[in-house]
């Protein structure tokens, strides 16, 4: 609740979602969401700013079952292969370009 109070205070000071978000290092949409929820509570449209029984569920967007299956296939196909640490090309000369200083 203190974080929401800080969002409200900073918004009253700056009058900008973007400035509040930047100062608190959160999303502009998060600032906007909480300010709207505060307004809804003040107008009697909602009972709580942050519901006590809220459940945050975010589905895995990248690691789908298909991707997970492919990863396991690749890992299983590489099980018997020897590790090869010398796969990077060797640089010519005794100094690498990263080591040269002026």
Overview in brief:
The chain is an all-alpha fold. Helix content is 48%, strand content 0%.
Set out the fold topology.
Layout: H1 2-14, H2 17-24, H3 28-42, H4 65-77
Helix pairs in contact: 1-2, 2-3
Structural class: mainly alpha
* Global geometry: elongated
Helix content: 40-55%
Radius of gyration: 26 Å
Total number of helical segments? 4
The end-to-end span amounts to 55 Å
SSE pattern, N- to C-terminal: HHHH
Provide a descriptive summary of the structure in words.
The structure is a single chain. The protein is mainly α. Helices cover 48% and strands 0% of the residues. The protein contains four helices and no strands. The protein has helices at 2-14, 17-24, 28-42, 65-77. Helix 1 packs across helix 2 (17-24) and helix 2 packs across helix 3 (28-42).
List keywords for this structure.
single chain, 48% helix, mainly alpha, 102 residues
């Amino acid at each position: 609740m203190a974080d929401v109070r800080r969002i409200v205070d900073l918004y009253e000071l700056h009058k900008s979602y973007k400035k509040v978000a930047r100062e608190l290092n959160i999303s502009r949409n998060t600032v906007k969401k909480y300010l709207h929820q505060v307004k809804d509570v003040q107008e009697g449209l909602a009972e709580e700013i942050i519901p006590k029984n809220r459940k945050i569920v975010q589905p895995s967007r990248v690691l789908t079952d298909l991707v997970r299956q492919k990863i396991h296939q690749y890992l299983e196909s590489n099980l018997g292969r020897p590790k090869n640490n010398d796969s990077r090309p060797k640089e010519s000369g005794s100094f690498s370009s990263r080591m040269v200083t002026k």
